[in-house]
Amino acid sequence: MSSATGSRIVVTGATGNVGTSVVRLLSEDPQVASVLGLARRIPDWSPPKTEWAAVDLASERADLTGHFAGADAVVHLAWAFQPTHDPATTWRTNVLGSIRVFEAVAAAGVPALVHASSVGAYSPGPKDHAVDESWPTHGWPDAAYCREKAYLERALDTFERDHPGIRTVRMRPAFLFKRESASEQRRIFGGKFLPGPLARPELLPFLPDIPGLRVQALHTDDAADAYRLAVRSDDARGPFNLAAEPTVDAGLLGEMFGARPVRLPRTAARSAIAAAWGLHLLPASPHLFDAVLRLPLMDCTRARAELGWRPEHTATEVLEEFLLGFQQGAGAATEPMRGRKVG
Predict the structure, then answer these.
(1) CA-CA-CA-CA torsion sign (126, 127, 132, 136)
(2) Which tens digit of pLDDT belongs to each residue from 15-53?
């Protein structure tokens, strides 16, 4: 934004995987005067020009309008992935909490809203070519994560109609990784007792090659740079796909691990995941697995052309960094990102 010199930016979900990267980049930007990070628990981490406030978006008593007053932009990142066995709980935080954020942005007169949507908002799509931002966003209805992301796309349709003067941006990133997110993501998707050393190549003589398991990845810092560029822009509106090359599949992972891909039927893989999830041994649900197999590949031309965005890391570099962090129990100085090595 041309008036960004001295701007004040509020970030929800500021202590998670994406939030820590967004807060750091904004705090280092000379055009940003101050950053207010909102999170359920205030961290020990204190980057320059940053203040903190304890806010639970699931609470109707949260004074979001007061926190947003005087802000030049709100970056909405807050999201709860768990508990997958209780979708009503994640709905209260993710959907109802997000709607409270949107309403507070309008009530406080904030001129710009940058919302974290996801590739998970997209309807099932192709794996042999990339789609642009016009692809339908109805998600995979059986997966709570996709259902919630898709519902918020519809909520933002209404928000934009009712508040045309608020510049609204929807970021739709691929799977986001960085070294410091390894422990958090292990707890969210693999369980807190999954040993990081299992990711050693010598322990993986072969890799399961599951039909449809072809996805995109992106370094969290590269995604955060897109958020920063969107905050600073006067003109950026609407959705932006964010992903790095190359596409991640069994062949790429096999090269990384020095392991041979072995074809595994979808039904066998899903049955194993469903059994572990049903026994509360695995946090990630089989419904999310179903969704991942159906996610389209994304074309990121619009982000490059309109934001001037370029990822600095390849998908291969992202995964190599993340796996090293996974083995080491890497983390960061916030409660969601705390490091822990198991095994």
Answers:
(1) positive
(2) 999 999 999 999 999 999 999 999 999 999 999 999 999
CA pair distance 105, 167, nearest whole angstrom: 11
CA distance 241 to 30: 26
Rounded to the nearest integer, the mean pLDDT of the chain is: 92
Burial of 193 (0-12, 13-18, 19+ CB in 10 A): exposed
- Two structure tokens written together for 6: 């001295």
Q: What span, in angstroms and rounded, lies between the C-alpha atoms of 163 and 159? A: 6
d(CA 35, CA 33): 7
Give the three-class secondary structure for 2: coil
Angle between helices 250-257 and 315-328 (to 10 degrees): 50
CA gap 269, 260 in Å, rounded: 17
Per-residue pLDDT at 201: 55
Strand partners, 11: 37, 75
pLDDT of amino acid 2: 39
Angle separating helix axes 144-162 and 97-108, nearest 10 degrees: 20
Specify burial of residue 3 (Cβ count, 10 A radius: 0-12, 13-18, 19+).
exposed
Type of residue numbered 143: A
Give the residue from 206, 199, 202, 316 showing the smallest Cα distance to 261: 206
Query: For residue 6, which amino acid is it?
Result: G
142 or 337, which is more confident? 142
The CA distance from 248 to 322, in Å, is 14
Angle between helices 17-28 and 220-232 (to 10 degrees): 50
Tell me which amino acid residue 303 is: A
pLDDT, tens digit, 9 for 90 and up, residues 165-197: 999 999 999 999 999 998 888 888 887 655 555
The pair of three-digit structure tokens given for residue 148, joined into one six-digit string: 């919630």
